[in-house]
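User: Teach me something about this protein's shape.
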Amino acid sequence: MIAINFAGRGNSASTECETPWVIAFAKLPTFTITNRSGIIRDINNGVDISIEVKSDDNGTFKYQWKRSDSNDGEYSDIAEANSNTLNVKQVGYYKLQATNTKNNDEAVALSDAIRVTMPASEIKNIKFEVNGELHNPGDDNIYVTKGTMVKVIYDDLEYSD
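Assistant: First, the predicted structure itself:
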């Protein structure tokens, strides 16, 4: 029996029903990140990153990985990255968005970032030669007009175009 008392009014109501209705809403997913960083040792194979996602309401999860060049930058969806594990072949910051669905209700949460880097031994030394002057990739004020010869020096191998 369900009884309702309207406080301070002296009125009350009650009803009997066989089974009371219980509406269960989706709960926010929680994340367990075992490794907060990944290192790409072989660019051809990449590195697997994974996040365990849980909710105690037995809802159904949907996943979407997102990537950014910086931790506080804008994160963009990665196409077809819809499981809780992702093979990464590009350095950057990655977050997992998990959507828990229960009784047509959704709860969405975004994980903390996982940073993926490459060991210093794998980073190649690149320089540019423009009109006989040597430049590093981060140099300011390098302008090249159409027809200018640019030589790319990559780990002591030279390429010209």
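Now, about its shape. The chain has no helices and 16 strands. The two ends are 85 Å apart (CA to CA). If you'd like, I can walk through any region in more detail.
User: That's plenty for now, thanks!
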